[in-house]
Amino acid sequence: MSVIQDRKLVEISIDELRIPSEKVAHVQLNNPLEHALLVLVKSGYSAVPVLDASYKFVGVIGKTVILNQILGLENFEIEKLSEMKVKEVMDRNTPTLTRENTLLDGLNAVIDHTFICLIDDEGFFDGILTRRAILKEIKKNIYINSYKK
Ligand code: 2BA
């Protein structure tokens, strides 16, 4: 069933579309790049959240930035994968939302990002909102409304 139905986009909280933190692949600040690349390749995702040791959200790391870091002038400098840590190359400027934000906030955010990390009021990681979840929900609503007419 659609969670939108006759409700406005601003009345629906992101909580209803959230992927909970325990189902989200992540890496930690002090992990070597080798571990992060392994998580990314094995999970199949192009980017995943980065958490600190207390599970607070810090940023995002993706395959492209790792491969760029180890790319030398003529070949890949594979030893860098064990020498460098996630915290040295990750992106710390990614937007976040909370469960209480609305579907409209989520829709605005996923225009420029494939997923948005959710945090609680103390900064602890609280799951993600994906572009797929938002688009699926909006698509269901379009179908429901087109059958009503
Ligand atoms: P990408 O990894 O670039 O994935 C782009 C889209 O490809 C995903 O969109 C999904 O539709 C599909 N996809 C990729 N890998 C998949 C897999 N292992 N299983 C099922 N479908 C897969 P979204 O679902 O909208 O996800 C957007 C982004 O959110 C992903 O981008 C990834 O960076 C992140 N993501 C999604 N679920 C995640 C999870 N459980 N753990 C960590 N990151 C996740």
Task: Describe what you observe in this structure.
Keywords: CBS domain. InterPro entries: CBS_CbpB, CBS_dom, CBS_dom_sf, Diverse_CBS-Domain. Residues 20-78 form the CBS domain. It comes from Oceanobacillus longus. This is Cyclic-di-AMP-binding protein CbpB. By secondary structure, the protein is α/β, with parallel strands linked by helices. The protein has a single domain (3-146), classed as CBS-domain, CATH 3.10.580. The protein is built from six helices and six strands; from the N terminus they run βαββαααβαββα. The strands form two sheets. The protein has a three-stranded mixed sheet with strand order 1-2-3. Strand 2 and strand 3 form a beta hairpin. Bound molecules: ligand 2BA. Ligand 2BA is lined by residues 19, 23-25, 43-48, 114-115, 128, 130-132.
| CATH homologous superfamily assignment | CBS-domain
By secondary-structure content and strand pairing, the structural class works out as alpha/beta
- Give the strand order, joined by hyphens, for the main sheet: 1-2-3
The CATH class: Alpha Beta
Question: In whole angstroms, how far apart are the ends?
Answer: 18 Å
Total count of helical runs of at least 4 residues: 6
The overall pLDDT average reads 92
CATH architecture: Roll
- How many whole angstroms does the radius of gyration measure? 18 Å
Q: Can you count the beta strands? A: 6
Bound molecules: ligand 2BA
Q: At the third CATH level, what is the topology name?
A: CBS-domain
What share of the residues lie within helices? 25-40%
What pattern of helices and strands is seen along the backbone? EHEEHHHEHEEH
Apparent shape: elongated
Beta strand %: 15-25%
Domain CBS: 20-78
InterPro entries: CBS_CbpB, CBS_dom, CBS_dom_sf, Diverse_CBS-Domain
Keywords: CBS domain
Pfam family, one: CBS
